[in-house]
Design a protein that fits this description.
- By secondary structure, the chain is an alpha+beta fold.
- The protein folds into three domains: 155 residues, 2-Layer Sandwich (Beta-Lactamase), CATH 3.30.450; 78 residues, Helix Hairpins, CATH 1.10.287.130; 148 residues, Heat Shock Protein 90 (2-Layer Sandwich), CATH 3.30.565.
- The chain has eleven helices and 13 strands.
- The chain has a six-stranded antiparallel beta sheet with strand order 3-2-1-6-5-4.
- The structure holds adenosine-5'-triphosphate and magnesium ion.
- The site of magnesium ion has 3 residues, from helix 9.
């Protein structure tokens, strides 16, 4: 677009007005200075607009603070920025975020202090930022200030503390700190104040969004947990329906036969029927116990009565008891020498762990086999293992082994019952003790189940 000539007013200095040369030079210099100042201000304004845009674009508090850390550097010198928010209705201030050019931070995230009586209280009351340009001298005047001591230990020598006020309500502070004394001047306060209120509002926004995100995360976790419990409950119902139905029908049948006057059942047959009823009842009770045990553990009502347990005596007892039960199969259980010392465990629960592992070894091994119980005392834990000569476990069996209702390839060799819950419970109980459980096996050549317990 061409410039219209009528818009141009030509400037011809009048002959009558004449400035002395010195005066012209003075005005020229002043204009030059003004132009430079304006240029500087313009640059500053642009930067501040950039910061505001960045801060506005940030969604989460961390993002907003990161951009503040990056963008303020051109205007306010600092080696560290700290950012604290009020808690407990404004009675406590807690460090929420801090970033520095150096490590480690002595006054980091989570540090909290009471507001009452502190110098921060005065800053809030006045609403004005505060400059301390000689922190060492300040610390001598206020030896009680722990936060001053901590930042001094970090090497900080001067600080600018700015209140953050969102919609008239103080929400916290922004701390700019430098390792050089005499870093801060009033000009820095002015710069901060250009965007202070907007920053405070953005911080509030970021805080809310961050809180919402955490709440969403918590709800999702809760939801997953509820879904898992619901699935577990459904499998319980399935198992109860399936595994309790058969024994109940068998018992019902046996009882009605025995009560029917038309049949004259011989005494030895009656005896067999009673034994069957007793076995079935026993199985149902143990299944119900296992189901109850899992729901008990899952509902979080499970607690342990930990005490030191001398393992040598304890394991001798377990092995003796199981040897009596296993003699029907001709199976022998051997206890390798147990080192002296105690483990920290709940005796009832440790019994349950050993019963599950040893009874599995007996249940899934062929007749006349050997089982070895071996104990190792390491520096801070015990490792107990139960080794058998049974069919062992394939890789895919091993992956499902500790899941609820895992009835795998190996089947009981002496007609014993199997619900697939024993190891799932054992694992939960061992983990509640702070221990671990695992298995080593080559299919076809036995399995070794091991678990760890803390030393007493
Ligand atoms: N020592 C073992 N050797 C080979 N397979 C095993 C051994 N121990 C367990 N298993 C396999 O793992 C499955 C799960 O064992 P778990 O002890 O959890 O349940 P279960 O013995 O079937 O029933 P429950 O212990 O509840 O009476 C078993 O069904 C079996 O197939
Ligand atoms: Mg079992």
């Amino acid at each position: 677009m061409s410039i219209q000539s009528e818009n141009i007013v030509e400037f011809t200095p009048s002959q009558e007005v004449s400035f002395p040369n010195v005066e012209i030079t003075r005005i020229g210099l002043a204009i030059q200075e003004l132009a430079q100042d304006l240029e500087g201000r313009y640059y500053e304004l642009q930067k501040i607009m950039h910061i505001t845009a960045q801060v506005n674009a940030g969604m989460y508090l961390e993002e907003i603070l990161e951009s503040v850390y990056r963008d303020f550097k051109d205007f306010i010198p600092y080696d560290r920025i700290g950012f604290s928010l009020f808690e407990d209705g404004g009675n406590v201030i807690r460090a929420h975020w801090a970033k520095a050019e150096y490590e480690p931070l002595r006054l980091g995230r989570g540090y909290s202090a009471r507001i009452e009586g502190s110098t921060l209280e005065m800053i809030i009351q006045s609403g004005q930022p505060r400059i301390i340009n000689d922190l060492e001298a300040y610390a001598k005047q206020k030896p009680e200030s722990k936060s001053t001591r901590l930042v001094l230990e970090e090497g900080i020598r001067s600080s600018l503390t700015c209140p953050l006020i969102a919609n008239g309500t103080p929400i916290g502070f922004m701390f700019f700190s430098s390792r050089e004394p005499n870093t801060y001047a009033h000009a820095h306060i002015e710069i901060f104040q250009h965007i202070a209120s907007q920053l405070a509002i953005m911080v509030e926004k970021g805080k809310l969004i961050t809180k919402l995100a955490t709440q969403k995360e918590e709800l999702l976790t809760k939801n997953n947990e509820l879904e898992r419990l619901n699935n577990l409950k459904n499998s319980f119902l399935g198992v109860a329906a399936h595994d309790l139905r058969n024994p109940i029908s068998n018992i019902k049948l046996a009882v009605s036969l025995m009560m029917d006057q038309r049949f004259d059942i011989p005494e030895d047959e009656q005896q067999m029927m009673f034994t069957e009823i007793t076995n079935q009842t026993h199985y149902m009770l143990s299944l119900l116990d296992e189901l109850l045990d899992i729901s008990h553990i899952e509902s979080g009502k499970f607690s342990l009565d930990l005490e030191p347990i001398e393992l040598s005596d304890f394991l001798t007892d377990v092995v003796q008891r199981h040897n009596r039960l296993a003699s029907a199969k001709g199976t022998s259980i051997h206890l390798d020498p147990v080192p002296a010392g105690s483990a920290l465990a709940d005796p009832m629960r440790l019994q349950q762990i050993m019963d599950n592992l040893v009874s599995n070894a007996v249940k899934y091994s062929p007749e006349q086999s050997n089982i070895f119980v071996h104990t190792v005392k390491a520096e801070d834990e015990w490792r107990v293992s139960v080794q058998d000569e049974g069919p062992g476990l394939t890789q895919s069996d091993q992956q499902r082994l500790f899941k609820d209702f895992a009835r795998l390839s190996a089947k009981p060799t002496g007609g014993e019952k199997s619900t697939g819950l024993g190891l799932a419970i054992t694992k939960r109980v061992i983990e509640a003790h702070g221990g671990q459980i695992g298995v080593e096996s080559t299919p076809g050549s036995g399995a070794t189940f091991w678990f760890t317990l803390k030393r007493a």
